[in-house]
Design goal:
The protein is α/β, with parallel strands linked by helices. It is 48% helix and 11% strand. It folds into two domains: 11-180, Rossmann fold (3-Layer(aba) Sandwich); 184-389, Dehydroquinate synthase-like, alpha domain. It has a six-stranded parallel sheet with strand order 1-8-5-4-2-3, sandwiched between helices. The chain has a two-stranded antiparallel ribbon with strand order 6-7.
């Protein structure tokens, strides 16, 4: 039997003309607004000034906060939370990619307390009162605009840790496809791949019983990511492609696809550990890991699911056996490394990763198993990471 609970309170405004509602939404909470944004968004477009002008025209008082980097740091969250306390901030407006939105959520969780971000990540903060968050995503893929979780890095501890709470859902999100034009196309294409990974790993390749409707929705979404990412590769300013990808990215992680399937993000656990050590952009790290993981878990209990992925998502005419599963992995690699032109190995980012493989594998799961469509242990993670570090991959 299917049993699940679905709740998503985020109010979504889609399209540039919907920005006229931004002041009304913000004024519900009164007082000063702290605007968090990425430097690249402000530097590469006039949209930032346009948004600030909309707020100023409605007498919304703002304070600006820039410089939030990829893989946001705990100490930055603490600094911004202190600013919120001193300035009596009433709402956080996050304009940027996943890092900016995740940072805003972490600030939201601790700004009304005297706790630190590290306390939050250690699950030592009782989340009761939070600052409301409104998001304006400026990149594809993250999905943070419609969920209540995030990731923060603690570089001195070589850690990248997730957090989440139902009170951390954004109050509203304004999704404007034109705003994603400001992102470098290589990061946009990496983001497209990351949308597929979110669906693949979080809900598609799971042990949980899935409704046929859910399976087909996931496959439809992934097919359209592939379709529109290839359009963007040729025509980076294509609005139709960006609009579809923005909306798919939000639905990939807003809870709808779970519907009782559970989440088993093994590759995400591996990537978070690696980027905690080496500060690799998330989507690029995932592109290295996912095909190696998928090849590693090919066995009797996974062949059906992997072959279905190949036939329904990539349209492959394959037999349902180990050869069909391998053909699926190879086609995924062709899409990622040839069509999207993403890096194939970690050697493109650092030559030191191989020296810490055993240490990272122990941190990821110790002597336990990571549960998924195929459970894996430390020795599996070591094998996957070793292949990820090869200068060329077999097959």
């Amino acid at each position: 039997m299917y049993q699940f609970e679905l709740h998503n309170p985020v109010r979504v405004f889609f399209g540039k003309d919907e920005l006229c509602h931004l002041p009304t939404v913000i004024k519900q909470y009164g007082g000063k607004v702290l605007v968090l944004y990425s430097d690249s968004f402000r530097r590469n477009s006039s949209y930032y000034d346009e948004i600030i002008n909309i707020l100023n025209s409605e007498d919304v008082e703002t304070i600006e906060c820039c410089g939030i980097m990829a893989n946001p740091r705990a100490y930055v969250v603490d600094r911004i939370a202190q600013l919120c306390r001193k300035s009596k901030i009433k709402l956080l407006l996050a304009m940027g990619g996943g890092s900016v939105m995740d940072c805003a959520k972490a600030v939201s969780a601790i700004a009304c307390t005297e706790e630190t971000c590290e306390d939050l990540l250690n699950r030592e903060v009782r989340i009761e009162n939070v600052l409301p968050v409104v998001t304006i995503p400026t990149t594809l893929s993250t999905g943070s605009e419609m969920n209540c979780g995030g990731l923060i890095s603690i570089p001195e501890k070589k850690a990248k840790i997730s957090f989440g709470h139902s009170l951390l859902y954004p109050k509203a999100s304004f999704i404007v496809p034109e705003f994603t034009y400001t992102q470098d196309i290589k990061y946009t294409l990496a983001g497209c791949a990351d949308i597929i990974f979110h669906i693949m790993e979080n809900t598609y390749f799971t042990r949980g019983t899935k409704m046929q409707m859910n399976i087909e929705v996931m496959e439809c979404l992934m097919r359209n990511v592939i379709r529109y990412s290839l359009v963007l590769k040729k025509s980076p300013m294509d609005y139709e492609a960006r609009a579809n990808l923005c909306w798919i990215a939000s639905w990939a992680l807003n809870g709808f696809l779970e519907n009782g399937t559970g989440r088993t993000p093994i590759c995400h656990a591996i990537e978070h550990e690696v980027s905690g050590y080496y500060d690799i952009p998330h989507s690029f790290g995932m592109a290295v890991i996912v095909p190696k993981w998928l090849r590693h878990i090919i066995c009797n209990e996974t062949i059906d699911a992997i072959c279905r992925f190949g036939s329904e998502v990539f349209g492959l005419d394959i037999s349902v056996d180990s050869n069909g599963a391998l053909a699926t992995v190879k086609h995924l690699e062709t899409y990622l490394y040839e069509q999207m032109e993403l890096q194939k190995t970690f050697s493109c980012f650092s030559n030191d990763i191989e020296t810490t493989i055993s240490e990272m594998a122990y941190h990821i799961c110790g002597k336990c198993e990571l549960t998924g469509i195929k459970n894996i242990r430390s020795h599996d993670i070591i094998s996957i990471l070793r292949e990820c570090c090869m200068k060329t991959s077999e097959g």
